[in-house]
Amino acid sequence: MQLVKKSYTAETDENLMREVIKGNNLAFSEIYDRWSKPMLNYFYKMLWQDREKAEDFMQEIFTKIIHKPQLYNPSRAFKTWIYSVANNMCKNEYRRAEVRKGTSNSLHDNIIVHDSSAPDKEHDKNIFNDRLKEELELLSENHKKTFILRFKHDLSIKDIAEILETSEGTVKSRIFYTLKKLGKNLKEFSPVAKTIMVGVCLIELVQYII
Amino acid sequence: MMEDRNRSKMDVEFYLLNRDYNELTIDELAIVKEHVESEQEFNEMKAVAMGVGNIFKEEKELAPNPAIKVALLKEFDKQQPAGAYWLNGIFTSLFPKEKKLFQKPGMQLIGLAASVLLIVTIAFNGNTDINNSTLAQNEGVKTAEEAVEEHSKLEREEVAEEKNLLEKDLEPTTEVIEKEIAILNEVEIEEKPESVQNKGITADFMYDAQPIESVEADLSIAADLDYRRNDTNLNASEESFKKGVLKDKEKVAKSDDKLVISATAPATMEAVEEFSISDDEGYFSDDVSAGAIVTGNNSIDLPVNTRTLAEDSDLIGILYTAM
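Predict the joint structure of the above. Result:
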C-alpha cells in the first residue's frame, strides 16, 4: 500500500502539467512553487510596478491553469507557454488602461526625481539606476517586454520570439534599439562621458584659481 | 555565465557584456561595427547593458502572498474530484513552506506537545522525589526483616531438601536387599564348606571387622527396621568380603601350608579355634592392616591390641589396692 505520494521536485514542468491535467494537486502545488515568483515579478515589471495588480494577475494565470489546463499543449515548452499567456494578459491590460486613461502610453505616474549633487559613487549608481528605470518605463510595450524578458528573466532570443509571437530578428533588433536609445539617454553615466565631465570641471577650477 | 548560455558570439550583446572596445579582435570588431558606429556609442550601450543586468540582479524579488496559494489549492480541489489522502499531504499542511517557522501548525503542535511533556515530567519527578524519600526509610527496615525471613526460609528449605534426600536414600529397595542377602548367602555357602573341607587351610574372614554372621544379622535388622543408613557401608563390606574371599582362595591355592588371619578387629578365640593350623610359619596378609600371626606349635600370637588377663594382672592389682 502506498502511503506517501511521490515527490515531484525532480519532474519537468511539462510532466507536472500532464499530472495537473489529470487532477493531481501536488503537481499543481509544485508548478505554483516554481512559477509564482517569476510570474509575480514579470507582472510587477510590466504593469507599472503595481504589486497588488501583479498579484491579481499572477493569481489569475494560475486560476486559468486550474480551470483550463487542457489549453496547455504538453509538446510545447511550459516556460514559453506561461510567459506568452502572461504577455497576452499584459496586452489586454494595456488596452484596458488605454481606454481608461485615453492615452496610448503605458507610463507609470511614479516619476523618480534624482539629486545629482551627491559626489560619491554609490550615489551615482543609485542615480543611474533610477534614471534607467525611468527610461525603461518610457519604452514602448513591445520594446519593454522584450528588454525585460531578455535582461530580467534571462530568456533566449528564440524563447522571447515564441512568447511574443514574432521572429528572432525582430527580437534582436528590438533589444539593440533599446540599448542604443538608453545609451544615448544615459550617456552622462558612461565612463567616457564621466571622464569628459571631470576634465571640464578641472579646467573650470584651474581657470577660477588663476 | 547566463550571458554566454543565451547569447551567441554573433550578437553585439555578447561583446557589450564581455569585452571592452579595445579588446575586440578584427573579426569581432567587424561584427560590432555592423551595428555600432563608434567607440563612444559602444561604451554607452555597454554601460546600459551592464547597468541593467546589475539593477535586475540587485532588485529584491517579490514573494507571492501565501494566502494566494491556499486559495488556489482550494480552487483546484473544488475543480478536481476528491482523491486519496496522502501522508505527505499531511506533512505539507503541517509544515507549509510559505509560513514562518513559528507560524507552521506542525511547529506549534510540537511546541505544545513539548510543553505538556515538560510539565508532566516535572510533576512526575516531584512526586517521585517525595515518595522516594519516604520509601528510602521504609526500604531499610523492610530489607532487614525480609533478610531475616529469607534467611530462615532458606534454612528451612535446605533442611527440607536434605530430609527429602535422606528419605529418598533411606527408602528400602527390597530388590537390592534381597540381592545382597542372596550374595551374602552364596558367599557363606561357598566359604564355610571350604573352610570346613580344607581344614588344613586357614582363611581370613575378618574383612571389614565383621564376620558373616554379624553381616547377616545386620542385614536382617536393616531389612526389618528399614534401616539403610549403612547401605553404602554394607555394599562396601560386601564387596570387600567378596574380594577377601577371592584373594583368600588364591592365596590358599598358592600356598596351602600358610595360614593368614587378618582382621581389623580383634580375633576371637572361637574363630581362631575353628581353623586348623598345619604350619609353623605365619605371615601378615598383604591386604590386612592388622592381623594375628599364627606361629607354630598351635600357639597363636594375638595382635598387639589384644591383652591377656595375666598381662593385665598388674593393673588389676592396682585397681584392687585402689578400691
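Confidence is low (pLDDT under 50) at residues 194-212, 252-269, 274-300 of chain B.
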